[in-house]
């Protein structure tokens, strides 16, 4: 073989290898057009790749913001994050909880916030997808508003459709362990979606997701366990918010046999509410934020029925009490199936909660352009909790059968509670997790972060854990970011918490 022929062969083989490699990159790479290259308000260098965009099907355009892990994106788990409501945007988690930035209020007030890196971002240890779901929430939208009417089943089916399409767009992540997480009403979204995903895997639906388990924070689960008597009354009593007298009165009025109409269950419950109504239900230790612009005397100018207008009104009304739409559901809202009235949401912003920074950032057109979201003229204004969806709450009933099914099939579960949340108090969650009857394999003990007790946990058979975070409210990482990153990364690693 002469020298030039050898050179020719070498050249041909090299070109083929390069072409193969190029093809590999082309078919295995995340969509270039989704890459986020700059973010208004942030001057530094992004510590990992950020992507944003829509996944569209059935006239629905679901918005996601995806952050590759800062540690080892090709090996670290992919975690889907969902906020609750129903109707609240997962940018709640992104902006206020475990997202990559801390948002500093801009000057003047209401102008663009300044973004600093969050040292406790969950993207430090995982690839994370923030999804606005169902369609109509946050930056997700449809040009056909009849798509804004939905329920638990359709939401789970749509999120599953989203995931299949998302992994097709990002095939390099299909082999990574996959987890589903969320809080509040996502206590419904997470198990129902997990169940859809598992059915899809069993049916051989492609791509096959490497689903491993799920996390739920202060999640609603079951109307018997999460109701006022089982959950809120013992919480309020244990936290010293109601007296022994009120507590005993509620017990005897609601569980006893009283004929005296002045001593019925609802009057006793009202007495408890008089004591706790002024508190911030998302964290009883925090002050309640009163939005000066939100309060309007709505009487005579609302489509709400009178009974709803009266909700939360007491002798000494605080402005915020008028508003009853929350990130899970209102304190006095009913825990039973029913439509979430858009009119209720329109009553004002979320109770006690200042969402100015997120609202300013996500309604800025330069931000939307940078993250590949449609402008307000197409996708609508961003709201922390959307007033445009019509959602049949609790349409899927109790989540207990889902948890039993999923855990018995080998999927890991971490059920955690900020122990100062009065919206979905830990008392109800502790009770339902215990009621599953699983064998205790790690008996109630403190867990530690930074050499301090950070909360308590009880580990059960089937890799099922109930964990509290001491001093945290409804949105746990908002209050305890360091502790949250600790339990999150230990759990994802499969290490003891
Ligand atoms: C970011 O950069 C711009 C332009 O260079 C500058 O005007 C602004 O003050 C910087 N902001 C921060 C927070 O450093
Ligand atoms: C929705 O309608 C607007 C115009 O009204 C259009 O610009 C946009 O592309 C449409 N979105 C989709 C996904 O069809
Ligand atoms: C909007 O969606 C509804 C329900 O999916 C469908 O019946 C209707 O045909 C759609 N309207 C348009 C204009 O496409
Ligand atoms: C209330 O009365 C019913 C029927 O009379 C009885 O079965 C029940 O045990 C009573 N409950 C209490 C707490 O006394
Ligand atoms: C009721 O609301 C409408 C629209 O927001 C406004 O134009 C009208 O003046 C209001 N009426 C009263 C009595 O406040
Ligand atoms: C639980 O699993 C059984 C058998 O696999 C199935 O028939 C049932 O529908 C499942 N229930 C739920 C709530 O997923």
Automatic annotation (TrEMBL):
Ranges annotated as spanning the membrane: 7-26
A Pfam family that the UniProt record links to this protein: Peptidase_S10
The keyword tRNA processing appears for this protein: no
Record has Protease as a keyword: yes
GO cellular component terms attached to this protein's record: extracellular region
InterPro entries: AB_hydrolase_fold, Peptidase_S10, Ser_caboxypep_his_AS, Ser_caboxypep_ser_AS
Purpose of the protein: Probable carboxypeptidase.
Protein name, entry field: Carboxypeptidase
């Amino acid at each position: 073989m002469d020298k030039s022929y050898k050179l020719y062969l070498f050249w041909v083989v090299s070109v083929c290898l390069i072409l193969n490699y190029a093809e590999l990159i082309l078919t295995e790479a995340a969509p270039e057009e989704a890459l986020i290259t700059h973010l208004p308000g942030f001057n530094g260098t992004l510590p990992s790749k950020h992507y944003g965009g829509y996944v569209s099907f059935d006239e629905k355009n679901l918005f996601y913001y995806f952050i590759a892990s800062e540690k080892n994106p090709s090996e670290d788990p992919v975690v889907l994050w969902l906020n609750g409501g129903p109707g609240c945007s997962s940018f709640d988690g992104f902006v206020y909880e475990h997202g990559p930035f801390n948002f500093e209020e801009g000057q003047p007030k209401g102008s663009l916030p300044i973004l600093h890196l969050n040292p406790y971002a969950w993207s430090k240890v995982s690839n994370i997808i923030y999804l606005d779901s169902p369609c109509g929430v946050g930056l997700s939208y449809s040009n056909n508003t009849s798509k804004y009417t939905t329920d638990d089943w359709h939401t789970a089916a749509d999120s599953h459709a989203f995931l299949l399409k998302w992994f097709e767009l990002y095939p390099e992540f299909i082999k990574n362990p996959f987890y589903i997480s969320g809080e509040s009403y996502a206590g419904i979204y997470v198990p129902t979606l997990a169940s859809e995903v598992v059915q899809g895997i069993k049916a051989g639906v492609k791509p096959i997701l490497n689903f491993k388990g799920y996390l739920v924070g202060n999640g609603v689960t079951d109307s018997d366990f999460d109701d006022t008597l089982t959950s809120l009354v013992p919480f309020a009593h244990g936290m010293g918010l109601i007296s022994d007298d009120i507590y005993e009165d509620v017990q005897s009025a609601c569980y006893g046999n009283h004929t005296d109409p002045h001593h019925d269950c609802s009057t006793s419950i009202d007495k408890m509410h008089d004591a706790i109504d002024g508190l911030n239900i998302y964290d009883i230790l925090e002050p309640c934020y009163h939005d000066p612009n939100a309060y309007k005397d709505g009487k005579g100018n609302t489509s709400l029925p009178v009974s709803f207008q009266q909700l939360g009104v007491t002798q000494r009304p605080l402005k915020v009490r008028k508003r009853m739409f929350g990130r899970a559901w209102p304190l006095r809202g009913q825990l039973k199936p029913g439509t979430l009235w858009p009119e209720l949401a329109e009553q004002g912003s979320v109770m006690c909660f200042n969402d100015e920074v997120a609202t300013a950032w996500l309604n800025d057109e330069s931000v939307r352009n940078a993250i590949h979201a449609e402008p307000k003229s197409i996708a609508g204004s961003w709201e922390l909790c959307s007033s445009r969806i019509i959602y049949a709450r609790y349409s899927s009933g109790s989540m207990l059968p889902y948890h039993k099914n999923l855990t018995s099939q080998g999927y890991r579960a971490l059920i955690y509670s900020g122990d100062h949340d009065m919206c979905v108090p830990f008392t109800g969650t502790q009770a339902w997790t215990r009621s599953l009857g699983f064998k205790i394999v790690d008996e109630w003990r403190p867990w530690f972060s930074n050499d301090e007790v950070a909360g308590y946990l009880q580990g059960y058979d089937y890799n099922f854990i109930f964990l509290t975070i001491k001093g945290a409210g409804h949105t746990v990482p908002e209050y305890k970011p360091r502790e949250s990153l600790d339990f999150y990364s230990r759990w994802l690693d499969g290490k003891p918490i």
